[in-house]
């Protein structure tokens, strides 16, 4: 059952992560037993969702209390049993809703198997979309009650009728399609294949709920926008922007006054940025499909408003870097090799070079990732400080996460200026009596934020 599962990784990746969490500096500071305990806790908590859902409220359009009230009413009409909605005590545009789980759900004899990614989405309140189904009972028909399992190692054969491999139970649902439709249809498969009625973790449904007023976003991602501190009238660059959660937050914090340039190198993802901006009624966002490594040019400026840009074009730059994503929760399995995981550091450095050149003197650069490795976080900060003497580390506001992690040779003073969200330091699912509000800042995805000033 998912309540006891750990994050499943290739052995070489597990060993790599262990070497990070049990690095020499860390062992000297906390001892072997504590370091190993934290590492094991990390693997466990990564496979479980945080104990609350976080939404960012469009306070550029409507006051928070009114959004909170509207959300209550909307969820009531969707027959969600009295759900608690709590404003974050320090972040003025965040509402938190508790997740109920792991719940005691009894397993049924009919089994549906889905891929690990789909399984993770189910732990966050999604239904099973038909293309995600890998195996189901031979005679499954609409209306059948089934137990849903996530295939952790990607070993289940598509179209199988059962699977005995490494799988994790994620809850019960009702089939909305017959087996023949799922596996024998000539047309592209769309729609819900199994509607989850008894999930292991129950979260409020957010599909189409107040789309212009609430935006599902992890708490550390909301913190990034505040740490960047955009001001009305400024020109901001978001270098790796899709689907645009942080871009839209930046524009909202600027009251939609100024210009937010959003770049992403994948064309259809850029469309998502535009859609999100439109849904949230934000006009100051200009999104372009572009490789940000090449976003700076010394050639005379062109007449177009898009990239590439001359050096020192922006007041603030956000580099929310492509990364190995190992802090994402819930994540029951990652099939990547060590080579793939280590491939991000060089790309992040190329992007960082462009970021520093594009930033005006006196401007702010925020670097963030949703991963837990030192190579993509603290080591990048140490590299940046030695490569760019013009950069200094800045304090962050709000600072609700932990400080940076030992192991990259940074001083304690430098580590204090970094913000690392480390769920392994506080995660304990048996602590259900601790009020939500006391748990939220420690029970997040794994995330990292560094803020620099260009002098
Ligand atoms: N900031 C986004 C948000 O909050 O919604 C999430 C960004 S995600 C961590 C990283 C993004 O970087 C991906 O959408 C990916 O397509 C994009 N990306 C990767 N390499 C890039 C490059 N060289 N130039 C621009 N975008 C890139």
TrEMBL record:
S-adenosyl-L-methionine binds at residues 240-246, 264, 320. PROSITE patterns: NOL1_NOP2_SUN, PUA, SAM_MT_RSMB_NOP. Gene3D superfamilies: PUA domain (2.30.130.10), Vaccinia Virus protein VP39 (3.40.50.150). It comes from the Eukaryota. Keywords: Methyltransferase, RNA-binding, S-adenosyl-L-methionine, Transferase. GO terms for molecular function: RNA binding; RNA methyltransferase activity. The active site is at residue 370. Belongs to the class I-like SAM-binding methyltransferase superfamily. RsmB/NOP family. The keyword Metal-binding does not apply. This is Transcript variant X3. GO terms for biological process: RNA methylation. Residues 139-455 form the SAM-dependent MTase RsmB/NOP-type domain.
